[in-house]
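Co-fold these.
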Amino acid sequence: MIRSSAGPSVAWKLRPAAASDSDSIWTIFKAVVARGDTYVFAPDISRDEALAYWLHPSARCYVAEREGVVLGTYVLKPNQPGLGAHVANAAFMVAPTTQGSGLGRVMAEHCLAEARRLGFRAMQFNFVVSTNERAIRLWRTMGFEVVGTLPGAFKHTEKGYVDAYVMFRSLAGDVSADRRTCS
Amino acid sequence: MIRSSAGPSVAWKLRPAAASDSDSIWTIFKAVVARGDTYVFAPDISRDEALAYWLHPSARCYVAEREGVVLGTYVLKPNQPGLGAHVANAAFMVAPTTQGSGLGRVMAEHCLAEARRLGFRAMQFNFVVSTNERAIRLWRTMGFEVVGTLPGAFKHTEKGYVDAYVMFRSLAGDVSADRRTCS
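Predicted complex below.
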């Protein structure tokens, strides 16, 4: 069990997704993309398309549950094949009713630990919408930096064309830091 | 027929790829990725994997031929789904024996024209290896800028971990320029 910064009363269980989580994942996915403000997926994406992406065999999918209810999910995969496969990519979704609970950070910490365990050297987010200030603030506090700006690359449902950021952090440095702590 | 800057004796025919081009495309693909210096694909990628990527239904594939021999190929597709689908992505491969002939530029000009015709507002390259100076020089002369740097994101066969660039150019501005020329 992982306790988030929101307080000791909030305990999350993170685990690999099972086939039986499909309904929960789709409920979260649908609610998040329907707003058209953070993800590129078409706001009216079908369940099949969404699950084909999120549960793709090349990605590891995890869910976060509290009292048996799945309220968040993330995927972790190589960002590129072959000679770029040492850099991880990840994507996170939290049920809208659960936002602000600290679950994003809980999942991100779990994800970074998993990425290190799997031997990735870095993590990259390819498309962080520039108006998604909460996410950007979170990623910065977790060691990610904006390493690229894609002009007008996101068609925000309310704001029109806005920039998207590429964010990146090394994991190799942390491994050394961990080692130093242990020595 | 398109004449490249290499001289009037070099005339290229560019056309959409047909199923019968698979052998030619694989020959080029294999030779390019075997060097492990410009593309992330595993240098020993299989023919099936390579063609599944290059001839994916979501991409338009074109070939460039001279005297009936296919010596170059490129793919053009949306870089993201849904709310990011207004930005194009493209990738180009030239048979190693043909490099330096100007075919890269010929294909790139054709590709930009196709992207405009299809209504894309911009074009993005997600992963230009920083040591691929010839390509970077070409993209710069064609209006692309480096908008992001991915630290150590490419494992170069000879040089080890080197940076990769994200390059981007607007197509919207050009459309206005075209319109002004016509008015």
